[in-house]
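Researcher: Let's try something more involved. This one mixes different molecule types, so please make sure each is placed in the same coordinate frame as the others.
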Amino acid sequence: MTCPIQIIDVSKTFFLDNKVFSALNNVSLSINKGEIFGLLGPNGAGKTTLINILIGLLTPDSGQVRILDYDIVNERTKVIPLINSVSSESDFHPLMTVKEILMFFGTLYGLKNQEKNEHVDWLVKRFEIEDIQNKKYGWLSTGQKSRVLLAKSLINKPQILFLDEPTLGLDPDIAQKTRDLILKINKESKTTILLTSHYMSEVEKLCNRIAFINQGQIIDHGDIETVKKRIFPLSKIIVKIRDTDNNQKIKQFGFKLNGNMWSKSFEENELDSILEKLVNQNIKILDIKTERPDLEDYFINMVEKN
Amino acid sequence: MLKYDWSLLIKSKWRIMETFYFPLATLVLWGFFLIYARPFAFQIGMIIVTIQVFWVMASLAQTTISLQMMDDIWTRSLRELLISPLTPIEFLTGRILLAITRATLIITVLITASHFVLKLKLLDNIVFTSVSILLTLFASMGLAIFTISFILILGREYGFLAWSITEAVFFLSAPFYPVSVFPEPLRTFVHIFPYTWIFEGIRIYVSTNTFDKSIFMMGGILSSIFFLVSIPTFLFILKRARKKGKLIRLWA
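Model: All components are placed in one shared frame. Result:
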């Protein structure tokens, strides 16, 4: 099989208040088997529109989407049993209990009685929702709901999982647990995951590769370090030295004084030689740190540029 | 789907109220009117109560389908149903079966109560009663499926159609009076509603004890058309709503 998710020249336009709004414009992307792929972009960029097309809630105006070699538009019924999704817009009826929800969706995804019971029991344990399984969904906290949503997303052991802002609005500790669960799901089941998030640290922790989308177009894509280097090819080393006698020496190495700290930009392969030079010149260092641009810097830069 | 809907129904106090309280309250209200009108307007009283028995069942069948979908929208659970392997036909079938179940429950209670308490004689002619129930039920389910189709394509803000469309169709179907009461232009138009024929057939039966086959046949043809056309209409509109992005705005 080729890439499990192939998006080929997909466009989508909406009519809002008698105006034409282009939500996606010739978007093309391929996501590899088993990877966690991050889709970044500002609000209104087209991330959720793309996810909605991939899960069959929306039909593209042009282009093709192939999920596990099936066309999502014409072969939707073949795709749906193999994928699942969690979104910040996901919800269940508040009167259903947690167990009823999992059993109901187990039935919808074709699980038979014994297999369904065993799998639901496994999910309940896995997501630590044993103590709330007989509670009505409407009475759960946000964190508990999030675990139930993730549990349901695995009810059919999907080959592909679409997570649209899965930690939005969660407390930091619950968000961390959710991220750990996502990593475990990917590692243990080799599930391909497409994730959107506004939390760049989350994307950096979870994703292998990312794409940046803005105004309906893919502006950049690649593995995280590569995309960061395209915008920020250099990192920075910052040192504080003990005595001012060495000021001239450190200046010769290209360091610049900023307050009482000396700093220099460098490429990754230069770090060893810089440190070696400082040591060889007996420059006494009181404090040293490196600053590497993170994904948040990348995001801000991309939004400003585009 | 039927199990899912049934489980939600029995957990919801207002849905239980809707199933039994309002229909019975309607019967009691018009039952008292019948008792009052017996000396001077017996036939009119009988017509009103008989029509109400079938109309209450029709209304319940219609709102079962349309309000259940509105419930899916209000609770934002519709999204999870739509991204599951549940097909549109399975979705509709579950709702239709629930409507039939609820309608059967309430019509049994209403006919029994009206027959024994109000002496309505609905159990004396099983053919008339069965035909009236079936035609009214199928027309209502057809109307409900059209209603949910409108809501899907027009948007959540048109959700009020779920409970209000029945009333508009009711008075346009000449329930307690002949069609001749309407102004001329309206008389032709109202004949497109199956209820117009069904109610006329019921009025004739109550007044003259005659089962008019031709009127009920016309009602049957229109009820069948309503019901059978509503299903492909729903499927077409669902596809259209998916294309136009209307679906995703239902829970946004």
